[in-house]
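Standup notes
- DV: blocked on the single-chain target, sequence here:
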Amino acid sequence: MEEDMVTYDSKALVEKSQFTIMDAKNQVALIHNVLKEIMIEDIHYGIIPGCDKPTLYKAGAEKICAIFRLAPKYRVTRIELQNGHREYEIITELYHISSGLFLGEGVGTCSTMEAKHRYINKAMKCPKCGKESIIKGKAEFGGGWLCWKKKDGCGAKFEDKKELGKAGKEERKDIADVYNTVFKVAKKRSQNDCVLTATAASDIFAQDIEDLPEDMINNTPKPKPANKIINVTPPKETTESAEPTPEEQQDATDLFDKQESEDKAEYNKQFKEFIKYTIKAKEMFNKMTGSDEVYYGILSQDYSAAHANEVKSPKLQKQLCEDLKKVYASMKKERNGNA
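- DV (later): unblocked, structure below
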């Protein structure tokens, strides 16, 4: 049975001094229908581990603006910090295109002092060849540490970890490289906040969860699930009981828990393979150009990420691998042509 779409006159509605109950129901139903019929998961919104409510992405916020005929205006404040660091605060105002009425505003900030922008991961370096190719040796082969030849290392072995350079986070030397990324993130946060506020959609979407560090995402308390699509027409009366028996409830719970566990294990397996691929790609770019600039440029400009492990969506992970492959092939072809 085809679902009835909700009619919504945005111009007439914004000019009202007060919503009726039916107006409010129609607006909520419209957002639900947009989510269900128009938006695409991992493009307009995403489900972030640890959060049951879908997280609104930049493309989704723009889609809602188009549906409601809203136009954003921005007020940007740039704050210069010590050591070349910078913070952007952006206030977004939303106006109705037809009437010009002001509907609401939101605020978003982003700083190069945030860990994902401030630091880069530093791997252990081999003291003999200087390559970041150190791996832990297997116990059956004597343990210790190895500069792995398959990672372009020299094959040297080390008994004591103290002989190796320290791994961990390292302050980014050229912080200006992420100025534009920080500005774009602040703009996205501000626009998303404004859209959710002006359309009263915060009960349907979460915001900026994808920007949190992974350890904070996993520890985020799960909110109650968003309400299902509101039917603005009265439901048909029925004499049948919709209450499941305790046995049925337990069976459904067990099935859900099992499926959730299997899905999580499969995701973790795919994520490990994805990380292995990106590490290899980084090494190949480094070997070709002598730096990681191209690799991190693709992450920053196309995926708003400082590191590959920040790309959580399986679809985006697949797309990133394809992009890395295409760029590398293009550079290799160009180099061979100039040889």
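- Follow-up: The longest helix spans residues 246-289.
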